[in-house]
């Protein structure tokens, strides 16, 4: 018997890595869904359906027709400053649409793997384990915490995977990430400002996909922290990126979060303790060095295509 897995937001960074991880698995039947047409270059061994998660009717119809065993819900409004500037849109995607997904899962007895974030915390200390008390400091953080509450209150069978600072390469990405942004800016000789007072354990997108697959196949119950194991300030991480590609570190200017003046507040110090995911899911993240090597190999393969 194959496990039928449906992904939402399959055009996103995580969504595309999930297609790559799940489509070759003979024990899985994969249905990838996202807003609009399919942007993944991988087209074999799965079905793609356009699905806008803000439509409760559409979500219920698709889940009822497909009857998946597991849904991996990756679709979200992920740009933190845009959420701060457009709270209604943020609420529609990150809260109301999660309610749609949860209701359709409940109606069809589906296990939900839901994606959450370190931005549900205030960042006064870290690294954090799964028992830490949330206290969001941004509209995005509030929306993702509310979504976690909906999942936990309404479903019998769920996994919540909290992640942070995800990096990697995908096709026609709607947003960049720190590794691609820093690499490209420094290659183009552009000076960049990076904050030295925010601390994170960055996450390779392939590692996050691996965790989602493990949680989905085990129908693992509960909250799991998913990230890399190395804690850096954002500035330290950018120096590491520059060092890996041998780029000019003279272009990097370290600044404080306050002087950057972004619309949304960020938690200063998070980072995750990932022991629970390692012991229960069998999660094994790559080192940052290996993660950057994988990104480099993927970028070179694209250049040669
Ligand atoms: N990236 C991070 O650093 C990070 C950190 C912590 C937590 N997370 C969480 O991890 C999850 C996956 O993140 P990601 O990096 O893969 O995000 P992403 O690259 O921004 O992907 C999100 C995807 O959702 C799709 N989407 C947006 N609105 C939709 C709608 N109404 N219906 C269907 N699909 C819709 C987007 O489509 P378009 O491409 O067409 O816009 C996009 O492809 C999210 O839940 C996010 O909150 C991410």
In short:
The chain is of the alpha/beta class and 305 residues long. The protein is built from 11 helices and 13 strands.
Number of extended strands: 13
Summed over residues and divided by their number, the pLDDT gives a mean of 97
Percent of residues in β-strands:
15-25%
Given as residue ranges, the uncertain stretches (5+ residues, pLDDT < 50) are none
Distance between the termini: 37 Å
Cα radius of gyration in angstroms = 19 Å
Continuous helix count: 11
Helix content: 40-55%
Q: Provide the CATH superfamily.
A: NAD(P)-binding Rossmann-like Domain
**Structural category:** alpha/beta
CATH class: Alpha Beta
* Total of domains: 1
Q: Tags for this entry?
A:
single chain; 305 residues; alpha/beta; Rossmann fold; seven-stranded parallel beta sheet; 11 helices; 18% strand; binds NADP nicotinamide-adenine-dinucleotide phosphate
Task: Explain what you see.
This protein is α/β, with parallel strands linked by helices and 305 residues long. The protein has a single domain (3-176, 204-228, 271-286), classed as 3-Layer(aba) Sandwich (Rossmann fold). Helices cover 42% and strands 18% of the residues. It is built from eleven helices and 13 strands. The chain has helices at residues 13-22, 56-66, 80-85, 87-108, 139-154, 178-187, 205-218, 234-244, 257-260, 275-281, 288-303, and strands at residues 3-8, 28-34, 47-50, 70-73, 111-117, 158-163, 166-167, 192-195, 199-200, 203-204, 222-226, 232-233, 252-255. Strands 3-2-1-4-5-6-11 form a seven-stranded parallel β-sheet, sandwiched between helices. The chain has a two-stranded parallel ribbon with strand order 7-10. Strand 5, helix 5 (139-154) and strand 6 form a beta-alpha-beta unit. Helix 1 (13-22) packs across helix 7 (205-218). The relative contact order is 0.14. The mean pLDDT is 97. Bound molecules: NADP nicotinamide-adenine-dinucleotide phosphate. Residues 8-9, 11-15, 34-36, 51-54, 74-76, 78, 93, 115, 117, 163-166, 174-175 line the site of NADP nicotinamide-adenine-dinucleotide phosphate.
């Amino acid at each position: 018997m194959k496990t039928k897995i449906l992904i939402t937001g399959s055009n996103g960074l995580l969504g595309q890595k999930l297609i790559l991880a799940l489509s070759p698995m003979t024990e899985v039947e994969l249905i990838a869904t996202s807003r609009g047409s399919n942007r993944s270059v991988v087209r074999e061994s799965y079905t793609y359906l356009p699905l806008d998660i803000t439509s409760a009717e559409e979500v219920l119809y698709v889940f009822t027709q497909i009857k998946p065993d597991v849904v991996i819900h990756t679709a979200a409004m992920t740009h933190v400053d845009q959420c701060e500037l457009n709270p209604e849109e943020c609420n529609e995607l990150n809260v109301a649409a999660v309610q749609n997904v949860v209701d359709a899962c409940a109606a069809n007895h589906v296990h939900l793997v839901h994606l959450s974030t370190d931005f549900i915390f205030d960042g006064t200390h870290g690294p954090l384990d799964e028992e830490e008390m949330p206290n969001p400091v941004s509209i995005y953080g509030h929306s993702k915490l509310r979504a976690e509450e909906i999942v936990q209150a309404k479903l019998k069978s769920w996994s919540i995977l909290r992640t942070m600072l995800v990096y990697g390469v995908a096709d026609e990405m709607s947003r960049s990430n720190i590794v691609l942004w820093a690499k490209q800016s420094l290659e183009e000789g552009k000076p960049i400002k990076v904050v030295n007072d925010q601390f994170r354990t960055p996450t390779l997108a392939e590692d996050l996909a691996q965790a989602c697959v493990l949680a989905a196949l085990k129908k693992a119950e509960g909250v799991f922290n998913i990230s890399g194991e190395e804690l850096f300030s954002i500035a330290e991480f950018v120096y590491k990126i520059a060092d890996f590609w041998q780029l000019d570190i003279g272009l990097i200017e370290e600044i404080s979060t306050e002087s950057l003046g972004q619309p949304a507040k960020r938690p200063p110090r998070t980072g995750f303790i990932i022991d629970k995911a390692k012991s229960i899911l069998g999660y094994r993240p790559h080192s940052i060095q290996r993660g950057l090597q994988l990104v480099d190999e993927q970028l070179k393969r694209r250049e040669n295509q």
